[in-house]
Design goal:
Elements: H1 21-43, H2 53-59, H3 62-80, H4 91-101, H5 104-117, E1 122-129, E2 132-139, E3 150-156, H6 163-166, H7 170-181, H8 184-192
Antiparallel strand pairs: 1-2, 1-3
Helix pairs in contact: 1-3, 2-3, 4-5, 5-7
């Protein structure tokens, strides 16, 4: 795998005023970059370093799994957001949300509720699970790939992801994501992709 920290798909200040440039810079360089450096320390120069990140996540345990999973989660997070995102999804996504949640507002209510009920650090996801869309949360570094689910979009619920901009107001952060940041094109692309093979750690 490549241990280089990838560039963001937008400028650091492109998500303002909903996520500040300082938040993105610290989050990406210190947290995401720190996990990537630790992953290189753990497996750099070994045969495992030639594997894809998904393979490492699927086969690792313990600290190595947690580190690799956090690298994967953050890679996915940056692509889950876009400038001038959020709002109502395009037709096919809206139809899929209606089938699974009753209506788009039903999805939004579920996403907000699950995000607020997540205790401590973790992630919230929209996933494809056995043909239906679901909202799910994971603790710490866990991710849907190990459950055989297809991740469609995610939001980081660790406090470092939002504290500079929202302090302890997680609800406002989640609402800003839904209203202004979620990248529905990314959701659509993931919905069309082949679902992952179920894995366990």
């Amino acid at each position: 795998m490549d241990f280089a920290l990838r560039a963001l798909p937008y400028a650091e200040n492109a998500l303002e005023p909903y996520l500040g440039a300082e938040t993105l810079r610290l989050h990406r360089e210190k947290h995401h970059g720190g996990y990537l450096d630790e992953l290189e320390r753990l497996i750099g120069g070994s045969p495992q370093a030639a594997d894809s990140l998904e393979t490492i996540v699927a086969t690792a345990t313990g600290h190595l799994f947690e580190t690799a999973a956090q690298v994967w989660n953050h890679d996915f997070l940056w692509r889950s957001m876009r400038p001038r995102g959020g709002g109502d999804p395009p037709g096919p996504i809206a139809e899929a949300l209606v089938r699974s949640f009753g209506d788009v507002d039903g999805f939004r209510r579920m996403f907000r509720m699950e995000a607020m009920e997540q205790f401590g650090s973790g992630w919230i996801w929209l996933v494809l699970d056995r043909g239906r869309l679901r909202v799910t949360t994971t603790d710490n570094a866990q991710l849907p790939l190990t459950r055989g689910q297809t991740p469609l979009v995610t939001l980081d619920l660790w406090e470092h992801a939002y504290y500079l901009d929202y302090r302890n107001e997680r609800k406002r952060y989640v609402e800003a994501f839904l209203d202004h940041l979620i990248d529905w094109d990314f959701v659509a692309a993931n919905l069309k992709a082949e679902p992952p093979r179920a894995q366990s750690v």
